[in-house]
Design brief:
682 residues; 9-stranded mixed beta sheet; 11% strand
């Protein structure tokens, strides 16, 4: 009995384990933060964490892609061992242990908030999290449907949940903002007009400050880890963004740790990696390590211990998956870095951080030694096959919305050295801009230049088909898309675009209609949650006088858990047309829940509520639609409701004045609007 009491007393007085907060900064270069020496940065919150913790001067990412890098961070494994080799087509195997699972089993409450579709739960990182918030905002489909949310939106989701978390907890917050396109909000847009990338980082830092303030108010002992997943090339070595190369511009990342017992305001010069983060957190908490990780605990280094130098692997199969070029691998054995490409490269990082002086010939024995070490670790480059299941196809679509191109599902050996292939990308981008902004015919010459040198470039072929369609060359577009679907039969975009090509003549041509349906059916077999396939399919059915078939197609999308505001809007319209007002209203409400700025749904709800004589709600819907998309007809309707149904003369006058401002020259309603405004001004 006495022994039991003593044990209970000891347990009661034992210090509780601290909570853990992991903040990952997507696409963030270390050298663009103040604590890493940037003089133009505005990162006071990250800098403050560095002053109160340990900053690692030479932290390395194993891969310049978000999902594989985060997988390494949470498993302590390099990509070849955890198996997630690209953002698309891969999912972490359930057998691979995660840091989160270890923490949850130790009694930690776990929550994650990610800011882009690239980290949605389909990637396999949600295991062990009680909360895994991967909701993202819907962007403007006229450009890209960017499936991401700003750091401020992420924080609005984090703060209520943070208030509920009971210590000890593990909170992971992912910020995506510095990713292309760089569109910092006010006032950062003006301050960083010449370098909006830095403006995005400054905005992200301000939101990180909100998180740190909330954690301070919570008063829980904390281990805080701040890490970049990869950087951004910003034009270095000819790469505008990231994913292709494994140079330091994308591989040197910030890494800062702060917590009880860690020395404040210190830095570690030794080479470390993201694979070291999970082992370090577990060691700091006194918890068992994950089995057979590639990383090590950095606890000794932070305490000033001298430890043997470690080698760190890097890779990118993205050039191969996306463009059919050669994949890249690298090994850092400080101070040297060896890159295994068709033309090998060797750099001495301390004296050449920009990797401009290739020493592969001058230091041939060292290059050969590192090549052998890399092969001993990883073996020779192998052909990789990405999955073609529905979940991974859906992820490809989301990633396309984020600017990642998709090509074959197989990474081939050989192909163009990315150092040569990257020279083709300006033509690819020029073609993409011409198709988006016009004239689309301007896209053909740059695409022909690319395909002459790189005939297997799937993104170039897909763009060529789009250019041909825009120019009215439907037969040529069909031939191009048939070629792509034969070359990459697992690429649902090829089948989707082939269906679009047939659809141009399918309204009256039964054979083209059958071919369009067959292509879209194949696309949906591969990607049953691709919203645009359902929308185009339903549109063609409706145009051919088959509204019920169109409705069933959109209901099929909903059955596959497609959450798309345009689908819900179109479905709502079809339900109203078949006189099922309740179903129509419910669909339209779902549309604006998904996208509060969905103008068509707001306008349709305005009409429905007006018909139901709920004039106050009707005015509200029309007002919201007008705020999103100023149009004279919306302003006139709003003014009329306010005047005649609600008796709101000031509100009616304001609406009519806006309608007058928006009306084009020659609008026959201008005289009546002026008369109404004059009458309401008395």
């Amino acid at each position: 009995m006495i022994g039991a009491l003593l044990l209970a007393a000891a347990a009661a007085t034992a210090p509780a384990r601290p909570s853990v907060v992991l903040v990952t900064l997507d696409t963030t270069r270390a050298d663009h933060l103040g604590c890493y020496g940037s003089t133009r940065a505005l990162t006071p919150n990250i800098d403050a964490i560095a002053r109160s913790g340990v900053r690692f001067e030479n932290a390395l990412s194993p891969v310049p892609l978000t999902l594989p890098a985060h997988t390494s961070l949470l498993t302590g494994l390099v990509p070849r061992r955890h198996g997630v080799r690209d953002n698309a087509g891969f999912k972490l195997d359930a057998k691979v242990p995660l840091l989160t699972e270890r923490l949850k089993s130790a009694g930690y409450e776990t929550a994650a908030f990610v800011s882009a579709a690239v980290l949605d739960r389909a990637g396999g990182l949600a295991r062990g999290f009680t909360t895994y918030d991967d909701g993202v905002r819907i962007g403007d489909k006229l450009a890209f449907n960017y499936e991401e949310r700003a750091a401020s939106q992420t924080m609005e989701a984090v703060l209520p949940r943070l208030a509920e978390l009971k210590a000890p907890f593990f909170l992971w917050v992912h910020f995506y903002d510095p990713h292309l396109p760089y569109v910092p909000p006010k006032p950062y847009a003006a301050r960083f007009k010449e370098q909006p990338y830095d403006g995005e980082i400054a905005f992200m830092d301000a939101q990180l400050g909100r998180l740190m303030d909330a954690l301070k108010r919570k008063g829980t002992p904390l281990v805080v880890a701040v890490a970049g997943d990869h950087g951004e090339s910003l034009g270095e070595h000819g790469e505008a963004t990231h994913g292709i190369f494994v140079y330091q511009a994308t591989q040197h990342v910030p890494l800062i740790l702060r917590g009880p017992g860690l020395p404040a305001g210190t830095s570690v010069r030794a080479c470390v990696g993201l694979v070291d983060v999970a082992p370090t957190i577990l060691d700091l908490l006194g918890l068992p390590a994950l089995p057979a990780t590639d990383g090590r605990s950095l606890k000794g280094l932070m305490a000033g211990a001298k430890e043997p130098a470690r080698e760190y692997e890097m890779e990118s199969y993205y050039p191969s998956f996306a463009y059919g070029w050669a994949a890249l691998r690298a090994l850092v054995s400080y101070p040297f870095k060896f890159i295994d490409a068709p033309r090998h490269e060797l750099y001495e990082l301390p004296t050449d951080p920009g990797e401009k002086r290739d020493l592969v010939k001058a230091r041939a024995p060292r290059a050969a030694e590192m090549a052998a070490s890399l092969d001993a670790r990883a073996g020779a480059l192998t052909v990789l096959q990405a999955a073609n299941d529905p979940d991974t196809q859906e992820r490809r679509e989301k990633l396309a919305s984020l600017g990642y191109v998709g090509g074959s599902s197989t990474a081939a050996i050989g192909g163009l050295d990315p150092k040569d292939g990257v020279r083709l990308l300006p033509d690819l981008e020029a073609a993409r801009r011409s198709i988006q902004l016009g004239p689309a015919t301007d896209a053909v010459p740059p695409l022909e230049r690319i395909l002459a040198k790189n005939p297997g470039n799937i993104p170039a072929l897909l763009l060529l088909g789009q250019a041909q369609l825009s120019a009215g060359k439907n037969d040529e577009a069909v031939a191009t898309y048939r070629k792509v679907s034969a070359t990459a039969p697992g690429n649902n975009l090829a089948w989707f675009d082939l269906g679009n090509a047939y659809a141009t003549t399918a309204v009256k041509d039964d054979a083209a209609f059958a071919s369009a349906k067959a292509a879209w059916d194949k696309a949906l077999d591969l990607a049953p949650r691709h919203a645009d396939t359902y929308l185009n399919y339903a549109s063609l059915l409706a145009t051919r006088g088959q509204p019920e078939e169109a409705r069933q197609m959109l209901l099929k999308a909903r059955a596959h858990d497609v959450a798309d505001p345009t689908i819900e809007t179109e479905l709502g319209m079809l339900e109203v047309a078949r006189r099922d007002t309740a179903a129509g209203k419910a669909a339209l409400e779902r549309a604006i829940a998904l996208n509060p700025g969905q103008v068509e749904a707001l306008e349709a709800l305005g009409k429905l509520t007006y018909a139901a004589e709920d004039y106050k709600s009707a005015a509200g819907f029309y007002g919201r639609a007008l705020a999103e998309k100023p149009r004279p007809d919306l302003a006139k309707t709003l003014g009329a409701i306010r005047l005649y149904q609600l008796g709101d003369k000031p509100g009616a006058k304001a609406a009519f004045e806006q309608a007058l401002t928006l009306s084009p020259p020659g609008d026959p309603d201008v005289a009546d609007l002026r008369a109404l405004i004059a009458e309401l001004s008395k």
